[in-house]
Design a protein that fits this description.
This protein is about 35% helix and about 20% strand. It is α/β, with parallel strands linked by helices. It folds into 2 domains: about 190 residues, Rossmann fold, CATH 3.40.50.150; about 55 residues, Helicase, Ruva Protein, domain 3 (Orthogonal Bundle), CATH 1.10.8. The strands form 2 sheets. The protein has a 7-stranded mixed β-sheet, sandwiched between helices. The chain has a two-stranded antiparallel sheet with strand order 1-8. Helix 5 runs parallel beside helix 7. The radius of gyration is 20 Å and the shape is elongated. About 5% of the residues have low confidence.
């Protein structure tokens, strides 16, 4: 039945077909019998099967593509600890799935929305134990980028403020069907032991606005008094700021507004 499935470009689908890579990804999840796991983008269930083989308490599989539903239902109908959620990830409330417990998020993320999914995880950080994602290598490199490097972007700052990020491995196109035009990578993320208690949406918008027109000096984007209070030169540019600078500036600007 799997052969009847055609990947859809509009969903950014590339099915992972290497059993070795699948096994390594699931190793990183460290599946326990008490786990609630949420998989984003089931596809035809290669990753799903390996997770279920390790027997978590419950695995929720989120899939947007209706043509995959009969394949998934047939493949996993015998598993009592699997539940298919036939919807777009962005319509699913993870707090409801968690039922006041922590969850592990995993997925070979659709390339066209991977950054949006990563941003979304910040808003669920209170219930996340860890995430293990397959992404474009380019996005993975942004996640771990340091100030003053070309990969340092809004995504770097926003995710690193809340998560510890580990780059696990690169995955060449030949391990997928169809092969993507880019190299992929597996990353693992854990919520930081302590992360700032702030309005996450306001902070996201603040960091995003600073990275717009990133070659402009900060004095053209922020009050000079705020920069002075944060000990940041007026001539500095956004890619020179570290995480602490962003948090300081955010607090100073909000305090004065």
């Amino acid at each position: 039945m799997k052969n009847n499935f055609k990947t859809k470009k509009r969903f950014g689908q590339h099915l992972l077909i290497s059993e070795g890579i699948i096994s390594k990804i699931v190793d990183e999840i460290e599946v326990k019998y008490t786990d609630t796991i949420v998989e984003i983008g089931v596809g035809t269930g290669q990753l799903t099967k390996e997770i279920l083989n390790r027997n978590p308490k419950i695995l929720y599989g989120i899939e947007i593509d209706k043509t995959a539903y009969p394949i998934i239902e047939e493949k996993f109908s015998e598993y009592e600890n699997f539940k298919l959620i036939e919807d777009d990830f962005f319509n699913v409330n993870l707090f409801e799935l968690a039922k006041n417990e922590k969850i592990k998020l995993v997925g070979n993320l659709p390339y066209n929305v991977s950054s949006l999914i990563l941003i979304n995880t910040v808003f669920y950080i209170d219930i996340i134990e860890r995430t293990v994602f397959m992404l474009q290598k380019e996005v993975a490199e942004k996640l771990i980028a340091k100030p003053r490097t070309k990969n340092y972007t809004f995504l770097s700052v926003f995710i690193q403020t809340f998560f510890e990020i580990e780059y696990i491995m690169s995955v060449p196109p030949r391990f997928f069907s169809p092969p993507p035009k880019v190299v992929s990578a597996v990353v693992k993320m854990f919520p930081k032991d302590s992360f700032p208690d702030l309005d996450k949406k306001a902070f996201k918008n603040f960091v995003s606005s600073l990275f717009a027109n990133k070659r402009k000096m900060l004095r053209k984007k922020l009050p000079i008094e705020a920069l002075k209070e944060a000990n940041i030169p007026e001539t500095a540019r956004v890619e020179e700021l570290n995480l602490e600078d962003f948090l300081n500036l955010f607090k100073i600007v909000n305090k004065n507004s």
